[in-house]
Design goal:
By secondary structure, the chain is mostly helical. The chain has 6 helices and no strands.
């Protein structure tokens, strides 16, 4: 007998779960440059990335007959592929551009993982609550807009 994979949770639900987790983590961040806080910042970014990835999978399900599979791609490349779809490309492209949500996420992650060198004249700007809140708000606006577009189609 061959067992078939049964999807227990929808991509939309997983996306919502990860965004809820990121909101909870954000409440506990203190941005004091401690190891624990940096780990929590990284966990926040990871939750956002997972949420975005599952949102992309949810969007892909609606257009799977128009494009090849995106399951093997990371969160950013999933959105690059989805940005080729005429119906949603304007919404997605804005977030892929410089200073878009995806760029902000990658920049924040790089800042967490980079080594701060004290003897440099220039300093690395640290992540802060304002930036993480902006990422979260941009993501929520982005996902709501995409879901509304899908509901209307």
């Amino acid at each position: 007998m061959e067992s078939k994979f049964k999807k227990l949770v929808e991509f939309k639900e997983l996306s919502n779960l990860y965004i809820d987790l990121s909101e909870d983590i954000l409440k506990n961040l203190i941005f004091d440059s401690s190891v624990k806080d940096k780990q929590n910042q990284l966990l926040f970014i990871n939750c956002i990335e997972n949420s975005i990835s599952y949102l992309a999978d949810h969007i892909y399900d609606s257009f799977s007959n128009q494009m090849e599979s995106i399951n093997h791609l990371n969160f950013k490349n999933k959105w690059i592929k989805l940005s080729k779809l005429e119906t949603i490309k304007n919404v997605i492209q804005k977030e892929l551009d410089h200073d878009g949500m995806i760029d902000m996420i990658e920049d924040s992650k790089m800042r967490i993982l980079s080594i701060n060198i004290d003897n440099l004249i220039s300093t690395n700007k640290e992540n802060d609550l304002k930036k993480f809140s902006l990422i979260l708000n941009k993501y929520k606006t982005f996902s709501e807009l995409l879901r509304k577009i899908l509901d209307e189609c």
